[in-house]
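Hi team,

Filling in the usual template for the complex we talked about on Friday. All components are listed, including any nucleic acid strands or ligand strings, so the model treats them as one assembly.

SUBMITTER: L.P.
PURPOSE: interface mapping
COMPONENTS: two
RESIDUES: 820
SEQUENCES:
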Amino acid sequence: MQKTTGGIVEWLIPLAFVAAASWWIWHLPAFLLDWLPYDSESLRGQVEAIYLRSDITPNMPGIFGGHIDIFDLAALVLTPILAVIGARSVRAAAMEYEGASAIDRVSLFIGRVTMMMIAVMTMVMLYEVFMRYIVEKPTEWANEMTLWFASFVFLMAGLYAMQQRCHIRIFLLYDVVPRWLQRVFDCISTILIVLFAFFLVYGSYKQVFVNKLYKWELYGSAFNPPIPATLQPMVLIVISLVALQAVLNLIADWNKEPEIHTDEPDEEEIQMLKRAVGQD
Amino acid sequence: MDIGTISLILMLALIVLLAIGMPLGFASASLAVLVLVMKFEPALLLNPFTFGDGILTGRPGTGPLYILAQKIYGLLTDYVLISIPLFIFMASLLERSGIAKDMYSSLNVWLSRSRGGIAIVTSIMAVIMAAMSGIIGGEVVLLGLIALPQMLRLGYNQNLAIGVICASGSLGTMIPPSIVLIIYGLITETSIKALFTASFIPGFMLASMIILYIIVRTRLRPEDAPLPEPDPSDPEPIEKRKLFCAFLSIVVAGFSTALFIRAAFFEFSGSNAANDGEPARLGTIEYLPWFAGITIAALFLIFVVFGKERSRISWHMGKGLVAPIVVIGVVLGSIYGGITGITEAAGMGAFAVLIIAFLRGEGSFELVWDSLMRTLKSTGTIIWVTIGAASLAGAYTIAGGPQYVADLIVGKELPTMLVILMMMLILLFMGAFMDWVGIVLLIIPVFLPIVLRLPIEEIGFIGQLEPSQVAIWFGVLFCMNMQVSFLSPPFGPAAFYLKSVAPPHISLTDIFKGFLPFIGIQLVALSILLIWPNIIAILL
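RESULT (copied from the run log):
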């Protein structure tokens, strides 16, 4: 019997991570203003205006004499600490593929964080439905907040799926060829994934990191969250991580025995459903 | 490089990459890069050392390759896409609660004495589950766990039992809300609500054809579906009918009360007065007397005609149906009541299932945790195929691909129905090997432009479609096609889902053998859609 997962700590660490990361991402212009000074005065003014409008703690004095206040710094420092604690403590559930390397654990932890984000975004959406249709005071922020969270969820779920090796593939030919040929196939796949990531990053890093992130482009709505400024860099970052994970998968699975892939659901899923209909 | 060559190379490369087992999403994504290279900088293919000289790679950090990042960004910020994880979340909560089991028992009570009763119950239950969520898989497994042992124990024909479970279990993607139609609507920019409305009648048509088949077959060959031993505590047939009517009255009373409260709330909170757009459907003051009248009539039936005692018994027999009906009311009511969009409806549905699970004493952090994990896995796989295909579609469109293919086919001046028939054959063939996600994302963007340019008066034999309905019709047609693909050998996923919970003596070959008559039924339904396309427009 495998140990079950989902204890209280496994909820709290990812949640804390989401909170800390959200905090400093929201206040990212403060870091940009202080640490990566803008050449153009008008651009600096623009970003500063955006920052001052959205600062959650406007009365906190900036440390380093600038815009970063103590909470922002604490969130920034806490994020990697929580990630390390989370990655060290994460345990794979019975239905999950548990990798050996440290990167696998990071991917698993990112999976946990994404799970929490799904829960949070669902609650934000229900809050908006409640406010709009029952109280009739629709919020400005909830829909776009859901959208923002969801887009991050979609990206990070792909990294998790890569680590779990559950991306949709066709095993028709793959399962009948000898193992050495399977390795050749895997190598081709991995090289192409890496090439895709390379071309994507090569072809858009300036647009993404300068024109969107550095210039802090907003969504252009009433609430105006920095979705372009944060999501576009995230696309490049996650796709690079996925490529890295693909390479690691290739190395980790190099000596694995061949297995036949079917569409059958996994054992734990079936146990779960059996319990639901009362046949243990 | 001209677009004909690009298309040919693209097709061959796609086949090769899929055959070697490269993940679908990444295969399409890397081919998107290949298409851009062929279009803008073919020299790079022959001589990689020219990297950095051409239009594509000459300016690092910007240029045509940025289109890919923009396409992905555009897809990720599509609000409707959020409904996919939410529907998956709802389905996994549903599967893990005992709602399905109770629904089965409740349905079984009413039909246990009819010939082929359990098979019919299985179909009806599948339709109800299909109307709650739009995912197959779990549904087939659940039906396999609940209904298969019982049918086999009673001595039902094994093929009939297997076929009914899988054919009905696949209905989830045909009856709204359906995740196949959501993705179809997303990539073809068709109204998802219209797709849902249009698929109602074809979906129920297919379901009733399955049920009709069961009835006819068990009448002709009673040995296929033996009746269970009569249970002495079971009420007489006439009494049972009365009990059923009493139960219906209770449900009607509950719903009309809820609608009455809703309309009254809208009216007296001043929301109707403040609303200057379209009035809330069934939510204005004219409806109040109607709901009040229906409620009173139903209460009269419950307490006077049927009597309190009988109503109480009927409630006990039927209460397993109440939770599913409430969930359907929440999801479809949210979409069609004009209250919220598809995305919010999915969120509300998940919330309703969670509340019901807690009320039933099954809700726990563990339940939510497991469902979230399942959601994460399915989301990652579905969305990333979508991401890859969106990049490929973007790159191919810039290269002029869909236009070229459409010109090619339309220029041949083939008979319209022949073109559509060939598409159906290609879809059926692909469906036997590939997941529906891959088909909808890779093939539909090429097929739909062709269909849209075919002469509309030649589509179908009876009735004529409006130009605005062609995309909707093709979506429903595609969905019907996928019904077949869930069952068709050698890779029909429904067979594998059932195999995982079937008794060991039932082999995969047995399962596929059981599917044959049901595949026939699906093909009949498909041809009705082809011959009479207007069937989708009845509710539109």
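MY TAKE: Chain A touches chain B through 85 residues (CB under 8 Å). Chain A has a mean pLDDT of 84.

Thanks, L.
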